[in-house]
Amino acid sequence: MIRVESLYKSFGEEPVLKGITTTFEQGKTNLIIGQSGSGKTVFLKCLLGLFTPEEGRIFFKEQAIDEMNIDQQRKLREDMGMVFQGSALFDSMNIEENVMFPLRMFSEKPREEMLERVNEVLARVNLEGVNSKYPSEISGGMQKRVAIARAIVNNPSFLFCDEPNSGLDPRTAILIDNLIQEITKEYNITTVINTHDMNSVMEIGENIVFLEKGVLAWQGNNREIFMTDNKNVTNFVYSSDLFKKIREIQIKEK
Ligand SMILES: Nc1ncnc2c1ncn2[C@@H]1O[C@H](COP(=O)(O)OP(=O)(O)OP(=O)(O)O)[C@@H](O)[C@H]1O
């Protein structure tokens, strides 16, 4: 579980996060959604420790980051997996080396042991036998699977995904969403996903945090999001062409 208390972050005079308080639950796919510029990436970067908030606190398993010593912070880093937008694989490394990278960063295990773990996670994302291929030799969907394998190789308690669906066709996007959700349940991970894909909201929105100009304007799940009276949320939901058409049909039928 991750608990966030009154988080404030600004750049110069510009306040970006204006007092966010929320909880991301363990074993669930927690989504951060909102219009472009609402502060989703800044929020995710605060959770990852890439930005330091001016005010507020973030608790990982009930321990505040600002109370952790260097050793505890290092352990927390090891306990975090990250799927970057566009996969961010290392082009000059083959798939095996890419997935092994976080293991080498945090452990001094013998290579055979690391390889065993690499093969285990590659099998989990249905990518056996691609070890010696390079990122440019596999499809975008496969690259995402490799990115997921790399993110879970250290068996993390926390998984962060920045727009994991970007650049994928709708069918592959749903497969990736489902894979992330399955892994979240299987390993009981606290997963936080930054997205503006309404299909993801529908498919895996177990706990959705809606940001509006740096404020947490609404929180709920993928059933509740269609019932809310919050106008900003409704505008966001029906901003996608598909949902706009469904909405028009619903209104006509009333
Ligand atoms: N490093 C930075 N320095 C200054 N301003 C920043 C920085 N990072 C983000 N901002 C500002 O913070 C605001 C929120 O940006 P953020 O990237 O979090 O939005 P977002 O909701 O993730 O948008 P998108 O969906 O387009 O990625 C924007 O006004 C942006 O210009």
Automatic annotation (TrEMBL):
Matching entries from InterPro entries are given as: AAA+_ATPase, ABC_transporter-like_ATP-bd, ABC_transporter-like_CS, P-loop_NTPase
Q: Which residues form the ABC transporter domain?
A: 2-238
Please give one Gene Ontology molecular function term for this protein: ATP hydrolysis activity
Keywords assigned by UniProt? ATP-binding, Nucleotide-binding, Transport
Keyword Repeat appears in the UniProt entry: no
One Pfam family assigned to this protein is ABC_tran
Q: What is this protein called?
A: ABC transporter ATP-binding protein
Q: Which organism is it from?
A: Aureitalea marina
